[in-house]
Q: What sequence folds into this?
């Protein structure tokens, strides 16, 4: 399977977080990872304020989820959920609303 990404705004920095070393190795060896604005890491960003959109692909481990909740509460404007089994009620409780839900993808946006 191949995944192709097209950057609508190539100047926007994208950071992929992957705790699993095997999956991280695969991610960093993709062609897209050679772009200056796309980075994969197993470390949290030094300044999370840089990132305002979060994509949750699978339910994170409890330790990771605790940290993720803090970052979403502090800086997120949008959250995209790709795991249909993941309970995202906590995001709605942070004053987010569902803007899009189709084909197991949910987009939540912060209500100002």
A:
């Amino acid at each position: 399977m191949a995944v192709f990404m097209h950057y609508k705004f190539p100047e926007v920095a994208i950071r992929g977080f992957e705790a699993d070393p095997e999956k991280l190795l695969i991610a960093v060896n993709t062609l897209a990872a050679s772009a200056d604005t796309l980075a994969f890491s197993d470390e949290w960003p030094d300044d999370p304020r840089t990132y305002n959109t979060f994509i949750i692909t699978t339910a994170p481990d409890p330790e990771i989820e605790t940290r993720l909740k803090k970052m979403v509460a502090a800086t997120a404007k949008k959250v995209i959920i790709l795991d249909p089994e993941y309970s995202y009620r906590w995001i709605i409780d942070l004053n987010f609303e569902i803007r899009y839900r189709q084909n197991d993808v949910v987009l939540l946006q912060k209500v100002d």
Summary: Strands lie at 14-17, 38-41, 53-56, 78-81, 96-102, 105-110. The chain has two domains: 13-43, 50-112. The CA atoms of residues 84 and 103 lie 9 Å apart.
